[in-house]
Write a structure and sequence with these properties.
Blueprint (H helix, E strand, L loop, with lengths): L1 H35 L8 H8 L3 H33 L4 H47 L3
Helix pairs in contact: 1-3, 1-4, 2-4, 3-4
């Protein structure tokens, strides 16, 4: 059962931290791209939209799925706690509470990844809409 403990501590939380770094990297890259994009270089709105939205699906997916990955870690941690209770045959409230608290940290990390990632996604989506509106007004001669 030590392997399950390592899976919860390092596997699930490691995956969540890796996903947060991926989301942050995409966020920073997209912001850089939005600052330097030349709207005049695009002939069609669709071409511009494709370029502006590259990678946004990953940020949205990370934000949407991080809580579930954290919840998976919590479920595995609770399973580990119950397994330990069953193996030892006695109910030590201290061990149970420590096991449950450690299990819940995976959900907390999942939420800590999901909330900022969702904010980043919404911010990027707003920037895309602004650029598309500027492109449309430029094309209309306004």
């Amino acid at each position: 059962m030590d392997s399950l403990r390592y899976l919860v501590d390092y596997g699930v939380i490691g995956i969540l931290l890796l996903l947060s770094m991926v989301a942050l990297a995409i966020f920073l890259e997209r912001l850089s791209f939005y600052r330097r994009v030349d709207l005049k270089a695009y002939r069609k709105r669709e071409e511009l939209e494709v370029e502006l939205t590259k990678g946004l699906h990953l940020v949205a997916s990370i934000g949407a799925n991080a809580p579930y990955i954290g919840l998976l870690g919590t479920v595995l941690g609770i399973m580990l706690t119950f397994y330990t209770i069953g193996e030892e045959g006695l109910v030590d409230s201290k061990k149970i509470m420590v096991g449950l608290a450690l299990a819940l940290k995976a959900t907390a990390v999942g939420l800590l990844v999901a909330i900022p990632t969702t904010i980043m996604y919404n911010y990027l989506l707003r920037k895309v809409k602004e650029k598309l509106a500027l492109f449309q007004s430029m094309r209309n001669g306004e």
